[in-house]
Write a structure and sequence with these properties.
Distance between the termini: 32 Å
Shape: elongated
CATH class of the largest domain: Alpha Beta
Structural class: alpha+beta
Largest sheet: 6 strands, mixed
């Protein structure tokens, strides 16, 4: 099996594994690009290019694969960019939450929420509120998407 076929098979397998809710296509001009921004409301979805290189043994270049995230899906890298009191997102148990407006309302104090900004707060939330209905219901009101 040639290196090109191995790369294509690996990329094809990867695409199949993550295809639930994720669309893909070939990027025609071989120019790597990445578009960032919110993927909810009227904002466009984020496009990620998975690039490959020309093998040292020669041969044609394998075009990169474009993977477009489904609306309202975020990565931990997306969440990490919202790590301040003016924009506080956290990933908790597979959901992504905008907790900015909850910082000063949290009964346990602002620091409890500020510690979750820009990161996966699952362990902290579950340690403090695991199994409690009221905190889980309040958290649900801040959900903006899901973690991928």
């Amino acid at each position: 099996m040639t290196i090109h076929k191995k790369i294509a098979l690996t990329l094809g397998t990867l695409v199949l594994l993550v295809s639930a809710g994720i669309a893909f296509s070939q990027f025609k001009d071989n120019q790597p690009r990445t578009t960032y921004g919110n993927s909810y409301g009227n904002q466009p979805a984020v496009t990620v290019i998975v690039a490959t290189s020309t093998p040292k043994t020669g041969g044609s270049k394998v075009p990169p694969t474009t993977i477009t995230k489904a609306p309202n899906t975020y990565t931990l890298a997306d969440v990490a960019t919202h790590n301040t009191a003016t924009s506080c997102w956290s990933a908790i148990n597979g959901g992504v939450y905008d907790l900015t407006s909850w910082i000063n309302q949290h009964p346990g104090g602002a620091q409890a929420i500020l510690g979750l900004c820009g990161r996966d707060g699952s362990a902290a939330f579950n340690d403090q509120h695991g199994g409690q209905r009221r905190p889980a219901n309040e958290l649900a009101g801040f959900q903006i998407g899901t973690l991928i």
